[in-house]
Structure formats: C-alpha cells, structure tokens
DNA sequence: ACCCAGGCGGGCG
DNA sequence: CGCCCGCATGGG
C-alpha cells in the first residue's frame, strides 16, 4: 500500500489570480509561501499541507492542486470561494471609473475564506502595523507555537497554525519575544477568551451585527479588526473594513480629499456597494495601497 | 533622525 | 457620542 501518495487534480476556473489574491494582505499573505516564478502557493490548511498552482490568465485558467490530503480540492474551493458568481459581483461593484480601473488591474483577486481563529490572530497582529512585519510576526508565531506537519514517512513538510488551546500557557512576555509588541497582551487574552468564553466556530457567518458584537468582545478586536474577521474569517461580504488605506482612498477619490469619519464612510459604502461591500473593499484597499 | 504601518483601549469632555 | 493619547517595532 502506498501511504505517501500525492493527490493532484485540476479545477477549471474563471476570473482568478493567485498572485493578487496572495499579495493583497489576507491571512494567506501572512503565512502562505508564494513562488512568483512558478505561480504556486504552499500553505497549511489545518493539519494538511496544500500546494496550489495556477495556469492561465485572469480571465480563465486551471488551478492545479497537489496534496497528500484527499479532501484538498474541496478545501481549495472553499478557501478561494471558487463557487462565487464573479460576473454578478463584478457587475454590482463596477459602480464608477475608480472601481472599474481597480477591477481591470487586479481582475481575479479573491476575498479568501479562512479559519476564524487564524483570521483573528492575524488581524490582531495587523493593527498599527505593516504587511511585511505582520507576516514576520505570524511566521514566528507558527514557528514557535505551531507544530510540525509530517508526511507518512515522518518527514516534516510544514507547520500548522496553533489553535487557541495550544496557546493557553503562552504568556504576554512570550508573545513579546516573537515581536508582537503591545499586541502581546491582546494575543494572550484572546487565546484564553476564545478557548473558555467564546466559541468562534459557533457564530453565525450571516449575522453581521451578531458577529461584530461577539468579536469586539475580544480584547484587541475593535471595529476594524472585527470587520476583517467577519469578511475573511466568516465570508460575510457585507463587512467593510476601513483601514488607513481604504479611508485615504475613499476620501481622495470620492470626497475630493475632504476628511470623513469612519461612520460616514461605512454609510457611504453600504449605500454604494451593499451586500458586496467587502468585495469592493478588497479592490479599494489593494489599489489604494499600490498607488 | 523622522515617519509610518490593514487600530485599539482608556480617559476625558 | 467624539476626540486625544500612548503604544512596540522595524523598514523606508
């Protein structure tokens, strides 16, 4: 019997870009490993290592999945939201010249659907921080507190993301040692809270207000981080995270540079992009950051 | 040297 | 409610 067989398969897909999806500051950006030359992404999904490649262009192509995990295809479909109606989503957020330009430039960028706890940790770390350093801290967290993923010959092929219960004995001081800075206390408390007080896996992904109120109960999770978790940890496309880039971009291109409050901008996004606001946001964010 | 980063908690008016 | 402040750290 062959225990160490690599399961490989292809998925036909339209409107997909692995590179833009990887580079747009989502959880996979922080702990995945992307090879620009081969256009492949390697990451841990739970206890399984997945290797995802893409052949084709932004309009259409094939995703090539290689893994020892039999359910890899389903996980990839879920993670990259391959069942989404991209034509419908693009149609409803192509509201103006700025959006059409961003979509044209980054066509195929997906809003990924990630593990709620992993998303919570990544975006607690993200606050008042930059993408490069967020990735460094997340990788150190996984390297220090995660565990090895091995193949059937006992060879180490990757590291898994620690669950909240794996971090119960990790102190604020320990989190400072991996470079988390003032966020160290938030991480230590979040591990306790999400193990003992709040089961992230029981929240209703479709209840936006409920998600916001439960998630902001975690120390270190405010309005913006809760929106990121609702969007990328639960797939709630209604969520519209407003960070410095989105705020700046909205003010510059929709309000002639005038300062607007986060509250006003939320109302604006709700009216303009409605139930796909989160999808629009990812293009606003990425375009804004790269200008 | 100085400024900034996918903000938040806490205190104040 | 809004506003203001401090906060750790590393890269440009």
What does this 3D model show about the protein?
This protein has 291 residues and is an alpha+beta fold. Among the domains are: 8-83, TATA-Binding Protein; 116-234, Hypothetical protein, domain 2 (Endonuclease III, domain 1), CATH 1.10.340.30. It contains 14 helices and seven strands. It has helices at residues 18-23, 27-31, 72-79, 86-93, 97-105, 116-126, 131-145, 172-177, 184-196, 208-215, 223-232, 244-254, 262-273, 277-290, and strands spanning 7-14, 33-35, 40-45, 48-56, 60-67, 147-150, 156-160. The protein is globular, with a radius of gyration of 19 Å. The chain binds a DNA duplex (13 and 12 nucleotides) through helix 6, helix 7, helix 11 and helix 12.
List the helices and strands and how they pair.
Blueprint: E1 7-14, H1 18-23, H2 27-31, E2 33-35, E3 40-45, E4 48-56, E5 60-67, H3 72-79, H4 86-93, H5 97-105, H6 116-126, H7 131-145, E6 147-150, E7 156-160, H8 172-177, H9 184-196, H10 208-215, H11 223-232, H12 244-254, H13 262-273, H14 277-290
Helix pairs in contact: 5-14, 6-7, 6-9, 6-11, 10-11, 12-14
The chain binds a DNA duplex (13 and 12 nucleotides) through helix 6, helix 7, helix 11 and helix 12.
- Helix and strand content put the structural class at alpha+beta
The count of helical stretches stands at 14
What's the main sheet like?
5 strands, antiparallel
Poorly predicted residue ranges: none
Short description:
It contains 14 helices and seven strands.
Salient structural properties:
5-stranded antiparallel β-sheet, globular, alpha+beta, 7 strands, 291 residues, 14 helices, TATA-Binding Protein, two-stranded antiparallel sheet, single chain, Endonuclease III, domain 1, DNA-binding
